[in-house]
Specification:
This protein is mainly α and 180 residues long. It is built from 11 helices and no strands. Helix 3 packs antiparallel against helix 4 (53-66), helix 4 packs antiparallel against helix 5 (68-81) and helix 6 (86-98) runs antiparallel to helix 7 (102-109).
Length: 180
């Protein structure tokens, strides 16, 4: 009964704010306990209606927070529906990254248009996928080209960039010494 109450409240919140990641994540976590197949059913319904694609994207982003492996599966389905959509490609890349599939993340992100790949939040993700596979030179090269002024609208990202860029540079020299 408490799950029914929670789902009723969450569903009413999602009607008002259908792309809210916190509400989507809470709905997914509750459905995991109450009706796991209901998640797949709802996602499939969203994919079938082109007007609901933005909601399928929001659900996939939220799913990555609590179950990155299921999010990876969802992102693949989303990408089948919208293979040219930069946001769907980003979602797939982030899902691969969350599952530690760095090479796949790099490969899918590399299909983004060059101007999209240079957006600070995308470039950071792309750099991180190289860094995680110990490709420090590539990671540093990508990150060092990020325009920090463009990151002004995302203070958390700008802070991470200011911290991570020197670390990426240090990783290059440290890794070279380890290989000697």
């Amino acid at each position: 009964e408490q799950y029914d109450d929670a789902l009723r409240i969450l569903n009413s919140l999602l009607v008002r704010q259908p792309e809210n990641l916190m509400y989507n994540n809470a709905w997914l976590i509750t459905m995991d306990q109450e009706d796991p197949e209901g998640i797949t059913k709802r996602f499939t319904e969203l994919l079938e209606n082109p007007d609901d694609l933005r909601l399928a994207k929001a659900m996939t982003k939220a799913r990555r927070q609590s179950n990155p492996w299921m999010a990876e599966t969802m992102a693949k389905q989303l990408l089948e529906i919208a293979p040219e959509d930069p946001e769907a490609i980003e979602i797939m890349g982030r899902s691969y990254r969350a599952c530690n599939h760095f090479k796949q993340a790099r490969e899918i992100l590399s299909t983004l248009p060059p101007e999209t790949l240079k957006e600070p939040h995308i470039a950071y993700l792309y750099s991180d996928c190289f860094y995680a596979d110990h490709q420090f030179e590539n990671a540093y090269a990508i990150m060092s080209e990020i325009d920090l002024e463009e990151a002004d609208s995302r203070p958390g990202l700008k802070r991470r960039l200011n911290v991570m860029l020197p670390l990426r540079e240090t990783a290059i020299s440290s890794h070279a010494r380890e290989l000697e």
